[in-house]
C-alpha cells in the first residue's frame, strides 16, 4: 500500500496545480485555509441545527422544516473537500505520513456512513412526518450524537495536523 | 504597553501554553478555538439564512432556540482566545490584523444582539439587513483570524508555522 501512496504523492507533486498550491500562487494556501474555516462553520452550524432538533431541542420546529438547512451544510462540506484536496495536492507528504490525517479521514468516514444510515437506513423517513413538539425516535437521537461527535473529531484531528508527525 | 504584553507572555501559564509541547496546552486550546468558531459562526449563519427566507417552514421565532448554542461557541472562544492571546501577547497585541479581527467580532456580536432584540423580542424588524451584515462580518472575522498567520508579526507555537 505504501509504495502506491508514495508513487501517487510524488506524481501529484509534478503537477502544475501542486506547484501553484505550494507557492507559485502566492495567496493560494492562505485563501484555501480561510475558505476551509468558512466551510467548517457552515457545515457545523447548518447540520448542527438538525442534530439539535433531533435531540429534542427547539421542539416547536417540525424536523423536516429545519432539515431544509442541510444543503448549506453540504455546501460547507464541499468547500472543505475542494480546499482540503488542494492542500493535499500541494504538499501530499505532509499528510500521508501524518497519523492525525488518518484519524481525520476515519472521522469523516464515520460521519459519511452516519449520513448514509440517516437517508438510506430509513431514519430520515421516520422524522420527516413529525410535527412540532414530537419526540424523534431513538435512531434519530443516535444519528445526531454520532454526527456531533464525528464532526468534532474531524475538527480536532484537522487542527492537530501541524502538531503531530512531520508536517508543516 | 510593551512591558505589559511581555509580562503577560512571561507568566508561568502563558509560557506553559506556548512552550510545554504538551498536547493539552497549545494544541487543545487551538482545537477548542476552531470548534467554538464553528458553533458561534455556524449557528449564527443558520439563523441568518432563516431570516433571509431559507427554510421558510421553520417558525421564525423558533430560531431563537439556537441562540444559546451560538453563545456557547462565543464563550468557548472568548476563553480559549484569551489564553492564546496571553501565550503570544507581544506579537498578537501589536498586530493590526488581530485588531481587525477583534473589531469585526465586536461588531458581529453587536449585530447578533440587535437580531435578538429587534427580531425575536420586540419583533419590529424582519432582520434581513442584519442577517446580511452578520454573514459578511463573520466571514471577515474568520478571514482576518486566519491571515494572522501570514500578515503582521507572526506568532504561534515554536517550530510550527501554522500555515
- Rg of chain A (C-alpha, Å): 19 Å
Average pLDDT of chain B: 94
Shape of chain A: elongated
Helical stretch count of chain B?
Answer: 7
Strand runs of chain A, count? 0
Q: Extract low-pLDDT stretches of chain B.
A: none
Q: Largest interface, and how many residues on either side?
A: A-B, 38 and 43 residues
Give the total of beta strands of chain B. 0
Give the percentage of residues in beta strands of chain A: under 5%
| C-alpha end-to-end distance of chain A | 24 Å
> What is the number of independent domains of chain B?
1
- Give the averaged pLDDT of chain A, no decimals: 95
Structural class of chain A: mainly alpha
Helix content of chain A: over 70%
Task: Explain the overall architecture.
The complex is a heterodimer of chains A (168) and B (163). By secondary structure, chain A is mainly alpha-helical. Helix content of chain A is 76%, strand content 0%. Chain A is elongated and about 55 Å long. Chain B has one domain (2-147). Chain B has 7 helices and no strands. The longest helix of chain B is centred in the first third of the chain and has 26 residues, at 26-51. Chain B is elongated. The chains are: A mainly alpha (168), B mainly alpha (163).
What secondary-structure arrangement, pairings included, does this model have?
The complex is a heterodimer of chains A (168) and B (163).
Chain A: H1 2-13, H2 16-24, H3 28-54, H4 63-66, H5 70-90, H6 93-96, H7 99-120, H8 123-128, H9 138-160
Helix pairs in contact in A: 2-5, 3-5, 3-9, 7-9
Chain B: H1 2-10, H2 12-19, H3 26-51, H4 67-87, H5 89-92, H6 96-121, H7 128-147
Helix pairs in contact in B: 2-4, 3-4, 3-7, 6-7
Structural descriptors:
heterodimer, A: 168 residues, mainly alpha, 9 helices, 76% helix, 0% strand, B: 163 residues, 7 helices
Give a brief outline of the structure.
The complex is a heterodimer of chains A (168) and B (163). Chain A is mainly α and 168 residues long. Chain A has helices at residues 2-13, 16-24, 28-54, 63-66, 70-90, 93-96, 99-120, 123-128, 138-160.
Amino acid at each position: 500500500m505504501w509504495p502506491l501512496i508514495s508513487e501517487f504523492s510524488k506524481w501529484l507533486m509534478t503537477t502544475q496545480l501542486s506547484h501553484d498550491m505550494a507557492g507559485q500562487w502566492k495567496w493560494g494556501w492562505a485563501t484555501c485555509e480561510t475558505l476551509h474555516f468558512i466551510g467548517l462553520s457552515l457545515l457545523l452550524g447548518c447540520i448542527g441545527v438538525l442534530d439539535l432538533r433531533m435531540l429534542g431541542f427547539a421542539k416547536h420546529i417540525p424536523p423536516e422544516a429545519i432539515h431544509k438547512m442541510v444543503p448549506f451544510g453540504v455546501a460547507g462540506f464541499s468547500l472543505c473537500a475542494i480546499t482540503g484536496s488542494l492542500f493535499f495536492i500541494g504538499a501530499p507528504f505532509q499528510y500521508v505520513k501524518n497519523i492525525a490525517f488518518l484519524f481525520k479521514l476515519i472521522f469523516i468516514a464515520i460521519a459519511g456512513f452516519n449520513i448514509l444510515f440517516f437517508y438510506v437506513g430509513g431514519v430520515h423517513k421516520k422524522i420527516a412526518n413529525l410535527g412540532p413538539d414530537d419526540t424523534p425516535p431513538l435512531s434519530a437521537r443516535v444519528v445526531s450524537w454520532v454526527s456531533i461527535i464525528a464532526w468534532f473529531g474531524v475538527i480536532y484531528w484537522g487542527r492537530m495536523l501541524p502538531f503531530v508527525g512531520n508536517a508543516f | 504597553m510593551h512591558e505589559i504584553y511581555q509580562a503577560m507572555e512571561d507568566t508561568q501559564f502563558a509560557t506553559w501554553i506556548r512552550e510545554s509541547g504538551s498536547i493539552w496546552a497549545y494544541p487543545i486550546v487551538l482545537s477548542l478555538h476552531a470548534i467554538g468558531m464553528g458553533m458561534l459562526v455556524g449557528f449564527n449563519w443558520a439563523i441568518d439564512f432563516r431570516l433571509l427566507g431559507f427554510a421558510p417552514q421553520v417558525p421564525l421565532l423558533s430560531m431563537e432556540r439556537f441562540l444559546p448554542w451560538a453563545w456557547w461557541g462565543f464563550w468557548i472562544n472568548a476563553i480559549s482566545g484569551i489564553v492564546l492571546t496571553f501565550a503570544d501577547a507581544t506579537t498578537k497585541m501589536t498586530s493590526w490584523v488581530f485588531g481587525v479581527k477583534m473589531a469585526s467580532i465586536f461588531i458581529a456580536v453587536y449585530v447578533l444582539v440587535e437580531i435578538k432584540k429587534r427580531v425575536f423580542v420586540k419583533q419590529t424588524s424582519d432582520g434581513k439587513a442584519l442577517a446580511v451584515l452578520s454573514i459578511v462580518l463573520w466571514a471577515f472575522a474568520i478571514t482576518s483570524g486566519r491571515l494572522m498567520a501570514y500578515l503582521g508579526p507572526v506568532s504561534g507555537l515554536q517550530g510550527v508555522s501554522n500555515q
